[in-house]
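tool_call predict_complex ligand=4'-deoxy-4'-aminopyridoxal-5'-phosphate
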Amino acid sequence: MREKRIMNYRELFSGIEEKIQLEDGSYRVAINLDNAATTPPLKKVDEFIYTNILMYGSVGRGGQKSHYCTQAYEISREEILSFFGISKEDGYTTIYVKNTTEGINLLSNILCRDKTTKVLVTRMEHHANDLPWRRAAQTFYIEVDSEGKINLDELENKLRRSIGTISLVSLTGASNVTGYITPIYEIAQIVHRYGAKLVVDVAQLVAHRAIQVKGTGKGDHIDFIVFSGHKMYAPFGCGVVIGPKEIFDLAPPYMIGGGIVTAVFDNDVYYKRAPEKEEAGTPNFLGAMAIVAATTVLQKIGFEAIEKHEKALTIRLISGLSQYKEVILYGDQRGERVGVVPFNIRGITYDKVGEFLEKKCGIAVRTGCFCAQPYVARLLNISDDERYQKMQDFNATMPGMVRASLGLYNTEEEVDTLIESIGKLIGGKK
Ligand code: PMP
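tool_result ok
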């Protein structure tokens, strides 16, 4: 066993000491290595929710509780902006949505006039940052190399060739498949040089790295960011879109209904301005409070410490898995990444690996394509023709991988248990 040198953050979290029953009837504390899907909550987040549920009232409606909630909800917008180094004075606003998926659907709806709008995305996107653009606009793609990385020359060439016609570039801040971190500030400079706007899906980045939306005044600011609370140690049901208030003010609202109008006549409707204009229906007050609580804790721990912890675990996991010649690791093992590690084992299908880890070892990982089929197919070097053929064949396993993804509460022991379990699975096969 190697020397232990990293911090232990388990005390800060709830829901991580629960025991589960394994196939052989024994019980063990579940190991969650599927943080890229969803993270357990911070204790401070739970506490904040319990405190606020006592004062639970409808935002923007009547009564004392409603006034308390309305005020706290409006302040929370500012607190979220400050987490990203910006404020209302910078022209940005916070819009609460259900999750990243809804946030990107909102943006695609209000930023794309019709199919003549040209949007540049990448082949590494989660379906949530690909399909809404495909439906609302004409999409162009930046390809990925065999390690799943994009090339900034290709980005620049595509923008240069279409100067002025590609109005928007949307890409992920960190991949939910390879953990690859995209150089968002460098990308922002290129995008702005060609007069386009930049949307960054920070669902996988927000709990792992500090994000500076404002930039340094050299065109490296980010125009829009989108994320979900449930990937940053807050619960499901609330996400955030941040962007320039003026753009939301000028665009037609995405969803319409109560809470977003100033006047409704028989034949005419007047809408409020952003952010209210984009939040039809009763807002998710507790969801917003939970996200603010999570940002407060993450800030207190500090992203330097978070990054250090995650890097140590990621390196341990990658080097542990690399000792098995049967393991194929995907992506770039040296570059800037978050703790998302995709792999396969030669001769054992990914679903069998997932089943073994869950039922025999009590370890949760994710298997398949992680809602990023075009990206996974490229990493596996499988063409669309081959995938179409497999789709016709009921007995064929669709291409996929196993993904282990780390959170702040994971420990070296948990990583070692995964590595040892993979060793047992490979050994048992021989
Ligand atoms: N983008 C990325 C990079 C993601 O990892 C995910 C979730 N796996 C999403 C978007 C979608 O998030 P949600 O399901 O919360 O809408």
